[in-house]
Design goal:
Blueprint lengths: L7 H29 L3 E7 L3 H8 L8 E7 L2 H10 L4 E5 H9 L4 E8 L6 E4 L15 E4 L4 H12 L8 E4 L2 H9 L5 E4 L3 H7 L4 E5 L7 E7 H27 L1 H12 L3 H11 L2 E3 L3 H16 L24
Parallel strand pairs: 1-2, 6-7, 6-8
Antiparallel strand pairs: 3-10, 4-10, 4-11, 5-8, 5-9
Length: about 325
Amino acid sequence: MTNRMPSASRRRFIAQGGAAATIAALPAFALQARAQARPLLKAGDQKGGLRALLEAAGGLEGLSYDIQWSEFPAAAPLAEALNAGAVDSGPIGDAPLIFALAAGTRVKAIGANRSDSYGTAVLVRPDSPLRSAAELKGKSVATNRGSIGHYVTLKAIVAAGLKPEDINLRFLAPADAKLALTQGSVDAWATWEPYTALAETSGHARVLASGRGLLPGLSYLAATDAAIAAKRPVLQDFLQRVVRAQQWSYRNVDAFSATLARIIGIPPEAARLQFERRQQKWVPIDAQVVADQQGTADFYRQVGLIKQGLDVKTTFDTGFGIGIAA
């Protein structure tokens, strides 16, 4: 039999039918690919923070999304990453959040926790002659700009009757600040947990002035506006896992302290000390939280660290609070 080329009409039919079949197949393929794709949460963290907590408590089991972790030594670089969209969310203290918002970072606090502020402190060498915050006049204090260490320094000296200009602030990352203190190139180091507990238990420093009675002890899980819009269910699930993991940790102090020490690479005694005395508890974002955060913003405006007043009410998203008080 002689093969014949199809007629023009048949060629059009094949072409149209083939194209239609291809077009019909694309939605099914796309839907399958979409079903197989898992959302990605770009989670920022600070040393001794959420990842260690979640891993210890088994809080990362059964995730319906993937997590890409990025660890930061302090809140300032974490805030920069949030601003750049390099991370979707991360834990941040009340004072660093004020700095980030004042700089125009498009983030909101989606969860709040309170803790004992003792470990947010101004430290000195064990042999230092300094015994009170009032004696910091004319002295040098190392800390991160905009950090809770910066905040506790200013609160401590103002409470002691001094002014910000009465001390010499040197802005250094935690590792550099600790080295500066131990080598004697600064008189004090203002920091937070777990650095405070680590410095104490290693004999490198003692607390000169703590944040207890000076700070509201607030910190937050913050998320970018873009992530809240695109990944709200993921963020909701992640926050609730953190809440449950925190509750687990205080029911399993020994196990968590040991795991925390291993994960973040500090001695067990330091891990346990900072964990036990913080007594963190996730709380609803209520009127008191907002009022305390407003007080922090007003204090930073008072001492000239932010140039304009900040109304903090718009910096909270209260739609994530289901089950926080449990």
